Amino acid sequence: MDLDKIERGVELILRGIGCDLKDHNYLETPERVARMYHEMFRCKNTGWATFPEDYNDFIMLKNHKMFSFCPHHLLPVEFTVAVAYIPDGNVLGLSKLARLLDECNSGPLLQEKFTRDIVRMVAEVCEGIKGAACLIEGVHGCARIRGVKSTGSFTTYKLSGVFADDPKLESRFFDLARR
To answer: How much of the chain exceeds pLDDT 90, in percent?
Structure first.
């Protein structure tokens, strides 16, 4: 990540909208914005601890709040994520599900792609699974503060393996995810 380029870009935006960069309110804004982007989107390089375990039902993380930016307007997006998988001999350390979501949050996100990437990454990291599922509710700043000014949220989901093949399992996932 090139923090100098981010700082110069923020300076250009501030000048472009007529801000006086000598005003005390803007003196360190480019640096602060660059640090914020670094904190949000830095490469995490997580070690994926898996453990042999004969567990045959799904493991779920739900109501996980995350923040990113939309790729079209660079406005904030708040995501509420539920992700689940059914292991096949190995389970992922529980905290690693949240870290996996952070790892997928590597820059401004299109919600649909983010949803697919999470399911794909669960399958890669968990060393063989019977299926994975992800449900995301997104509140998009671009739809809330400009254009249509919607107060609603947008829903995307992706199912793979047994979650896609078994309607009862799919229904259980959605029921638990929305509780």
So the answer is: 77
Nearest to residue 158, comparing CAs of 95, 97, 114?
114
pTM above 0.70, yes or no: yes
What's the CA gap between 95 and 101, in Å, rounded?
10
Task: Dig out the tokens for 157 from the structure.
Answer: 């989901």
pLDDT of res. 49: 82
- Tell me: the pLDDT tens digits for 29-54? 999 999 999 998 887 767 788 889 89
d(CA 82, CA 41): 20
CA within 13 Å, CB half, 3: 13
Domains in the chain with CATH codes: 3-41 (no CATH), 50-177 (3.30.1130.10)
